[in-house]
Amino acid sequence: MDVFLVLEWVIKSIILILFGVVGFAYTTYYERRALARIQTRIGPNRAGPAGLLQPVADAIKLIFNEDLIPAKADKFLFLLAPVLTVLPSLIIWAVIPWGTSITLFGREIPLYLADINVGVLYIMAVASIAVYGIVIAGWSSNSKYPLLGSLRATAQIISYELSLGLAFVGPILLTNSMSMIRIVEKQQETTWFFILQPLGFVIFLLAVLAEVNRAPFDMPEAEQELVGGYHTEYSGMKFALFFMAEYIKMIAVSAIAATVFLGGYSGPWVENLPWLGPIYLLLKIILLLFGMIWVRGTLPRFRYDRLMAFGWKIMLPAALINVFVTAAVIVLLP
Amino acid sequence: MTADLIIFIILALVSIGAALGLLFSRNAVYAALFLVLNFITVAIFYLLLNAPFLAMAQVTIYAGAIMVLFLFVIMLLGTKKLKTRGLNLWQRRLAMGLGVVLLGEITALFFVQGRGGILIGDIGANFGSPEGIGVELFNQYLLPFEITSILLLVGMIGAIVLTKDD
Questions:
Q1: Residue A300, preceding bond cis, omega within 30 degrees?
Q2: Cα–Cα distance for residue pair A248/A86, rounded to 1 Å
Q3: Total domain count for chain A?
Q4: How many CA atoms lie within 13 A of A15 on its CB side?
Q5: Residue A3, Cβ neighbours under 10 Å: how many?
Q6: Closest CA to A230 of A162, A317, A146, A109
Q7: In this complex, how many residue pairs, one in chain A and one in chain B, have their CB atoms less than 8 Å apart?
Q8: Contact B130 A154 (CB under 8 A)
Q9: Which residue of B61, B71, B74, B80 is the best one to mutate when testing the A interface, meaning the one whose CB has the most A CBs within 10 A?
Q10: Domain that holds residue A10
Q11: Which of A167, A305, B19, B126 lies most in the core, judged by the most C-beta atoms within 10 Å?
Q12: From the CB of residue B88, how many other CB atoms can be counted at a distance below 10 Å?
C-alpha cells in the first residue's frame, strides 16, 4: 500500500464530505427558493446576490444560538445523537461512483472511493443503522414529543426499508452484480433502468421519501402534533447537525436513485471526456431533488395509520410482484 | 507487525470492551448500544476475513433490524436502572463455575488444535462473495434454507395472532 494511494483516498473523502456540507447549505437555499416559487412568493433574496449568501447567514446564526441541554436529559447520549445521525449520511457516499477515471499528475485516479462487490448491500447496511441517531435523540431528550417522534421515525423507516431493499433487487437481477459501478456500466450497455424497471423506480422514490422523512411522509417531525419531532429539545449547532443529516441524506438518496435507475454518471460523450461524469450525476441529483421539493410543495402530509398501511399493504406487495416479474422475465427471455 | 494485525488488535479491544460494557452496564439502553457496537466490530472482523457479504448482512440484520426492535421494547417498558441485587448467591456461583468451565474448554481446544489455530486450506477468490454464498445456499443447502424461511413465517404469523386483541 503506497503513501500516494492513502493520500488519494483521504483527498477524495475530504472532497466528498465538503460536497456534502456545501450541498446541504445550498439544498436548503434551493428548497426555499423553489418552494417560494410554487407558493408564488419570492423566497430569500436579501443576503448577497439573489440571496446566495443566505445559507452562510443561517449557519452563523445557528453557531451563535444558545446551546441548551435539558436538565433531565441523558447528557452523553444527547451529545452523541447528532453525531450518530450525521455519520451514516456521510459514509454512504463511499460507494457512489462519480465517473470512470481521470488522469491527474500522471496518475490514473478513479472517480469513486470504493468499488466493492456488495455496494448495494453496503447502502442497505448504512441505511439500517442511520435510524440509531434518531432513536437516541428521542430517548435521551427525556421529553414526550421527541420520544413520540423517534418512535414514529423508527417504525416508518423499518417499514419502508423492506420496499427499498426489494426495489434494489430488480437492477441487481438485471446487472448480475451488486457493485454500483457494474450497475452503471450495465446501463451504458443496455438502457437506463427506469425504463426497464418503471415500477421499481416508483417504489424506490416513494420508499426513499419515507426513509429520509420528507413530506408527505414527514410524520416524525409533524409540527402540528409533535412540535419538532425527535429534535424538539435541540438547539444551536446540534440542531443544525440534524438538519444537515436530513439534507445530506436527501442528496445521497438522489445520487443513489440516479446511479441505480438513471444511468449514474453516464451521458453523451462521457467515454471520451470523463470530466463530464460528475457533471451529469450532479444534474441528475438536482433534478431528483427538485422532485422531492415539488412533492413537498404539493402534497399534504399522510395520516400516520395510512402511512403504515400504505407501506405494508401496497408498497411491499408491489415490490414483491416487481421482483417476481423481473426474475421471471429474465429466466424466460434469455 | 502488519497493518492487518494492528487493525485486528484495536478492533479486538473495542469489541471486548463493548461486550464488557454490555454485561456491566446498569442502564438497559446503554447495554443495548454496547451490543450494537459489538455487532458492528464483529462485522468489521468479517471484512478483515474477506467476507464482505457476511459483514454487510451482519450490520443490516443484527445491528440494524434486531437492535432497533430491541430498543423499542426497552423504550416501551420504561428505562429504570436495574437493581444490583438481582441474582441469588447460588445463581451467581453457578454462573461463575460454568464460565470457568467454558473458558477451560476453549483453552483446551486451542492447545489440542495447535497454537496457530486451525489452518484453513486455500480459499477460492469466490469465497464469501454474494455469488459464492448464493450458489451454496440454493444448491447444497436448499432444503434447510426453505425450512428456515417457513419457520420464520410461522413465527411472524404467531406474533401477529398473539398481539391481535380480539
A1: no
A2: 8
A3: 1
A4: 12
A5: 7
A6: A146
A7: 63
A8: no
A9: B71
A10: 3-332
A11: A167
A12: 9
Contact of A137 with A221, CB cutoff 8 Å: no
pLDDT along chain A (334 residues), means of 10: 78 87 87 87 82 84 82 82 88 84 72 78 86 82 79 82 88 85 82 84 88 76 68 79 87 90 80 79 89 86 83 90 90 81
CA distance A318 to A299: 22
Task: Report the b/e string of B116-152 with b at 16+ CB within 10 A.
Answer: eeeeeeeeeeeebbbebbeeeeeeeeeeeeeeeeeee
Mean pLDDT of B106-111: 81
Q: Is B133 on the interface with A (CB under 8 A)?
A: no
Q: What is the pLDDT of residue B151?
A: 95
Q: What is the pLDDT of residue B147?
A: 93
Give the model's pLDDT for residue B143.
Answer: 92
Q: How far is CA A98 from CA A113, A222, A251, A315, B103, in A?
A: 9, 35, 14, 30, 50
Q: Of A82, A231, A213, A67, which Cα lies nearest the Cα of A143?
A: A231
Cα distance between residue A23 and residue A12, in whole Å: 16
Kindly indicate the confidence band of residue B146, based on its pLDDT and cuts at 50, 70 and 90. very high
Q: Phi, psi (5° rounding) for residue A213?
A: 55, 40
Predicted confidence (pLDDT) per residue in B34-90, tens digit? 888 888 898 888 888 877 888 888 888 887 766 666 666 666 666 555 555 566 778
Yes or no: say if A295 and A215 are a contact pair by the CB < 8 Å rule. yes
On whether the CB atoms of residues A253 and A289 are closer than 8 A, the answer is: no
A312 touches chain B (CB under 8 A): no
Is A107 strand, coil or helix? strand
